[in-house]
Design brief:
The protein is α/β, with parallel strands linked by helices. The protein contains six helices and six strands, in the order βαβαββαααββα. Helix 1 (about 30-45) packs across helix 4 and helix 3 (about 95-100) crosses helix 4 (about 105-115).
Length: about 150
């Protein structure tokens, strides 16, 4: 009888997934480039045990959300559209308005649109924590400070 070798890749199991807490600073970063890299961290694409249909990403804390940069005229010309649910309830906001009221929402909206539009994407989005200043409430988790240039 001939011995065969299996070349099948096995999906990650609970023992292989080691979720860690990462701290990322958004000050001076460009919105799109920064959020695409954070979305990769949330999905777990930087890990060797990455499996597309399993949540193997890390918990990510983003600080200094108010210091994010937008290039060109995007600060005034780009529009976020939402709908209240009532007739005539379509509302428009520019990134400038959103940054003044809730600076963390600009980063959250950009990252949410980069994740899968299903149960898995919603689960991965819950691992994102965006804070406007440099103080956060996750000190007990001992987050590891990460420079995105070192990972990607």
């Amino acid at each position: 009888m001939k011995a065969t070798t299996s070349y099948r890749t096995k999906p990650a199991d609970k023992e292989a997934i080691n979720k860690s807490w990462l701290l990322v600073d958004a000050s001076g970063q460009t919105l799109g480039r920064f959020t695409s890299q954070v979305a990769k961290l949330l999905r777990g694409k930087h890990k060797t045990c990455y499996t597309p249909f399993i949540n193997c990403g890390d918990n990510v804390i983003v600080i200094n959300a108010e210091k994010i940069k937008l290039t060109g005229k995007k600060l005034t010309d780009k529009q976020y559209i939402r709908y209240t649910g009532y007739p005539g309830g379509q509302r428009f906001a520019t990134p400038e308005d959103v940054l003044n009221k809730h600076p963390e929402r600009v980063i959250e909206m950009a990252i949410k649109k980069m994740l899968p539009k299903n149960r898995l994407g919603r689960e991965q989005f819950r691992n994102l924590h965006v804070v406007a200043g440099d103080k956060h409430k996750f000190e007990a988790q001992k987050p590891k400070t990460v420079k995105l240039t070192d990972i990607f």
